[in-house]
Amino acid sequence: MLKFELICFITVVxxxxxxxxxxxxxxxxxxxxxxxxxxxxxxxxxxLSLSDIKAxxxxxxxNNKDAKCFAACLFxxxxxMDDMGKLNxxxxxxxxxxxxxxxxxxxxxxxxxxxxxxxxxxxxxxGNKGCERAKLAFECLKKNAPMHGFDFDI
Length: 154
Known about the structure:
Layout (H helix, E strand, L loop, with lengths): L1 H15 L11 H18 L4 H8 L7 H14 L10 H11 L3 H13 L15 H14 L10
Helix pairs in contact: 1-2, 2-4, 4-7, 5-6
């Protein structure tokens, strides 16, 4: 049952990931399928409770290890966080180039990541794992993405 609810949650997140009418509308299905498959892979390693899923729906990251590590797993798999648990603008740009055929969209992705680079300087308790930093990055991305035309309302 929880797996079904997670799939529904990820589908809703993906469906609302991009502003309606935004320049990246045509990429919704690509983003949806990537996030769905990645989310399913990550939840196997870092299970989420129903309250965790509800918190993510409300654009909050739960303050527990599995939720933070789930976010780190997603960030690593989609290419915005490196294996050392740091946000990586260069990897994000490479991932964006694969997803977006438009240089403007790639630049926006890089700008969002660059605007959150300060999270790499903050001390975290889990080192290279990246779970604590993923929480910091989540909050920063949530704050900065709308300024660049990305909508995270779910």
